[in-house]
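re: ur question from yesterday

yeah so i grabbed the chain u mentioned. its 657 aa long if i counted rite. heres the sequnce exactly as i have it in my notes:
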Amino acid sequence: MIGSFISGLSGLRSNQTRLEVIGNNIANANTIGFKSSRVDFSDVLSRTLRGAAAQTAPLQVGRGTSVGAISTQMTQGGFQDSANASDLAIQGNGFFVVADENGQNFYTRAGNFRTNTAGELVTVEGFNVQGFNASDGQIPVTAVLDNIQLPREPLPPRATSVLGFSGNLDASSPVIGTDPTGVELRVGGTDGIVGTLIDGSVTLADDGTAVNVTGLGTTFNALAAGDTLIVDGRTYTVASITDDTNMVLDRPVLTGTIEGGAGSSRITGTGTSFESELRVGDTLLIDGADAVITAISSDTELSVEVGLTNAVAAGAVLTFSGTAGVVATESRAESAVAPTGTTRLADLPNSNLTVSVNGSTNILVEDLTTGEQVVVTMTGSQSVNEFVEAVQNAGISAYALNDANFTVSQLDPDNGSATSFRFVDSQGAQHVGIMSYFRTETPGTWVWNMDIPAAEGQVQDPANQLTTNTRGTLTFDQSGTMESFRNLAGADVFSLTFSASDSARDISVEMSSDTVSTMTQFNISGDVVVAANDGALPGEFQGFTVDANGMILGQFSNGDTRIIAQVLLADFANAIGLDKAGANLFSATASSGTAELATAGQGGLGRIIAGATELSNVDLAEQFTSLIMAQRGFQASANVITTSDTIMNDVLSLKRG
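ran it thru and got these structure tokens back, copy pasting raw so excuse formatting
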């Protein structure tokens, strides 16, 4: 009879324990990272009334139940998105590693982390999250487990050491006459081709039949009738020579026919070359009347000062007036002899040195007689004569573009392709660089040129230019694929070096075929961009993100992103054997085994989800069901005790009776 009391009492105790566990589970239904527990009952050793025999089973009476195990359920919880970058969740196996102020490690699934005043990543209770801290943007192979530390000091500048360019160079770009070795871009001639320059200046006046030329400081006797001259970009033939300062030129030959409507000042041509053969101010004979040109729109369209009295039918001959003709001109004259590898200035747009988008054109001029060099900076769209004057003002007073060579640091997109970028020195100062490419007469060969303009106004600073390897050749094969990239010495690996400032270290950038390996030369619009530049300005720490492998990537005000730490995960041979230590923490036990640390996503560990937290894995429906079952078990055990008590009273009453 006493045995039934003991069995009922054990049922009360065991179900009470189950009720306590269920109550704890329900209480933590909204606790981040909480893992529910389950109670498993075991029966108590039975009392044997009769042992087993060959033909009979043993007679045994149980002594009740006991709590066999309370096991933690390590099933995956759901996820809740968060706007906090430091909130982390684990999808799969593993635990975050945290440590107390004494350095003792604990383990948790609750990733609702934050930063403290020391810039450390911590739990809400102040335990330090553990991982590997980076050095110079990399996790060292010798890194040890430590408190994760976020940056507190500004990111130091990183001097540029690597450059890369990609894109296409238009295979149909105009050829700019260039020394085949890439030494100089050669452009010359006041109004035409570099050749034997007629010394001095000339004045042209049309008398109605021919063009009379008066020279100043000229030697016309060196010429002969029939020679070709170019004045103001227009070709003339020498008719006769009077002396060194007087001669007569034939009027320029006009080609094609014209037409125009009555009352209109617009004249159109067929087979005409208005831009090369005519100039504004010239006087034409149209429908028997003089017509002064006021504008030339193209080779087939021009405008005259007064509208036509009568319509001019198609096919009318284009001729100069018999009273005026060629507009009065003061200029320089050149012969038409063209040295190899030179380009007519008249072939550049509008015979002007058009400034690029960066604001200036910089020209290195060399006196071929003395070797003297000066840097001339041109701004805006300036004429060739203005360029000559600028060279003279810069110090070469006798400069007359007589077979002179010069380099242009920034060309108009019509003549080349230029890409600007920024160097950064060791102190974080920026220096604008311009990489230009010019197509040469050799198929598939381009000349590249590197310039470092000054910081203000982007005007080239001669004292702050690259010191070595600033020019070379870039070649492509017949399929348009990059073939070679070399400096003038023919080296395919070299360094660009220049002095950044008095206090910063010199900048040195290694250049090789890898610098332009992805560039192409196809017959499509050219567009070259900077594909790689490892220079970085100083930057303040602004925030971070965490990738699936636990890598913490810091974001800085200079646009740089670098690795600052890596969160590690711990795994156990028997995670159910971990001891709950409170504050959502677990500690290792002999049952769980020692922690094995690894990177998220490796060795069977789960991946990390940033901006989310793992919810409790408590299933309330299941818990309520278990609660009912525990209640019924408790009530039934209580009934066993009351029933046994009633029977005991009946037995005692037999004796009294």
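noticed a couple things. Helices lie at 2-27, 274-277, 384-394, 620-656. also Confidence is low (pLDDT under 50) at residues 177-199, 334-362, 401-415, 455-464.
anyway ttyl
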